[in-house]
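User: Please predict the structure of the protein below. I'd like the answer in structure-token form so I can feed it into my own downstream comparison script.

Assistant: Understood. Taking the following sequence of 740 residues as input:
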Amino acid sequence: MEEKKLYTSLKQYQNRFLRQKAIGNLFFTKNSTTTNRSIIDLYQLLFTNFAEPQQEFQNFLTGSALKLKEINAYSIPNIDLHLKVLYSSEDDKVFMHKYRELSTKSNIFKVKPIFEEIIKFYKRKNKDNPEDLVNKTIKFLNSYFAEQFDNLKIIVKDSENELSEKGNNVFYLGYPYIEGFLETEEVFRGPLLLWPIVVDNNDKVKREMTLRIETTNVIINPMIKLRQLAARKINLDLVNFDPLDDEEDINKIEKALTELSEIGLTFKNNNPTVVSQTSIITNFSLPLKAYNKEQATSELKNKYNFNESAILCAAFIGIYKTTNTALFSDYNKILENTNLGELNDLFFQILNEYEDSKEKRIEFEKSFREQDVIAISELDFYQKLAIKKAMNSNLIIEGPPGTGKSQTITNLIVNDIYRGDNVLLCAEKKTALEVVYNNMKKFQKYCLFIDDMNNKSFVFSQIKAAIDSSLNTVVSEKQKISNDEMDYYFDKIREYRQLIEEEKTQNYTLYKNDLKDINNYLDPNYYERLNQYAIFSLALESFTEGVEKIYANLDDIIKIKEFKQKFAVLIELHYKKINFLKLSKLLTKIKDKKLDYLIYNMLAKGEIKPKINLTKDYDDYVNFLSEASSKITKLKTELESLDEFLAGLVLLKLETNFDPIITDNYPFIDFLLESQLAKDHLIILYKWIYIKNFENNNEDMIGIANSVWHKEIKEIEIKSINVAIDQLDNNLAIDIREKI
């Protein structure tokens, strides 16, 4: 029971986190140039390091090591000779011809930044001699290669720090890229897939590094998926952060495209899966166009329709932070893989320390009303509880920095002032007083800040300022600060909280999770029919036990049902204690009219007599023949097989030994025989019906869970804070006026 309760609580926190937490920045790659130090164009690394970049890229995607190093320009064969020939070109046309020739000999000349810089050097050929241009170019190349490797080192170091300090893996290859226009009216550009990278070797002396992809942990970009699901109001339980199967990259990309198309994204490319062939840019003039967020908003909105996107053949390695979805994923791991019994023991071991005061604490929490405390800044529930408790008894509030102690103290002072008390706040350090003083906002004018007892003039100046302010304040009558709206919402939330602690809600949560990956498991027309069967009102354990018994006796049940259908009238007579031995002998001696008399007497009177009193019973007999003609006809047919009936009476005896869960659910068994459903399918049907009934019976509470109530409360809270500040300012001004 406690484990189920813990599971339900974790699931609720997971869903609450997903609704309240910012999902993340969709616009992963704000700038696709090398000036962005958080990512590096993998294509440029491949072209500067390898003779066969396409093959290296394909090998990298399938888990092979990618060995990178800082390149030295002089390691390129005949580099100075090639550059000298290049810069001696007679005109631009010859230059481009020679450059293309050079790019076939070394891939580094296919990199756009290198090409652009060499163009600049070439345009200076009339000012500098070829020898100088060659030296400057080699110097630039070495600087470029060093900066490229330094950027990679920085990214690796930052990702290692993120992993060690926060436990978040942020070092990925983003490939391929996708951009478009979501239903949320957001433009985006980011990786379709994130391929986690492991650093196998980082030789800082030799300036070499070996990278490898964990092919079993490749994930679809969760940002795009979550935003689209939220916008289309699709059940967020369908969100899956599990890595894709360990398949070839073509299957991973196709699977990602399929999942996005299933939630409404379309693709502008005629054949978006063309990128699944591990295409690589072989033309140095085709890198991603660099955008900032503002440029993207205008350009991409013009380029795409709603829910339209396109695949971009780009690959960047670097830091991709998906930490806002990491907690959701962690919840999944806990809920699916953790031994809840062990986790439950841990939680309740901690809670047992407070068990003695648990009842009092719960009662105190339940008794809290928003009317009990006013606030001039945002407070959580337990800060408000602390204020209420402190106003009625001595209380020590402790906690590390940043936990809200100063805000709690500030609002405690405000509540005491609202009750008409004067408050003295003392602290060892001036800084602590300044924090609370600054938190007082509009009420600073009513506070005396004393940090030097000898500076009396400063104290008097503060008193004068408070009096002047009160005289200048436009006041109305004293007003009561009301938080009725807040109380209404929190009452609803308390009801919801009570509901989720009940076993039926815990069952609902578990069953929803069990069926989250099952589609089309039930014809909607089944619901009304199945819901009327008594067996579905049982607990799952009893239902499962009943189904097992039904299937174990199904052959006998079918025989009994066939027997009852064939001999329905004789069975009725059997329960009227008709002597079938006597009947059998009599049937050999009578026929026609006497047989009709016999049937009348058996059915109407329960007697075996082949004659009637024509004076007394004739009218009843005639009416009977008319009203029960079909029953009479069936009985005559059954009497022709009387011996078979007598032999089959053992089935009725067998039925008396059946568990009531069988005999009470014959209509349900009829449905089973009609639908031919498998035993395992029935458990799914049970859970589905349970879910439907729970949702129908608790529609209001589920509405609270799925609503944006936290936003509505936030709006009410801000409104309440503003009203409290204005009204308290008004009341204090009146008090000061009355005193002077």
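That's the full token string. The chain is about 60% helix and 5% strand.
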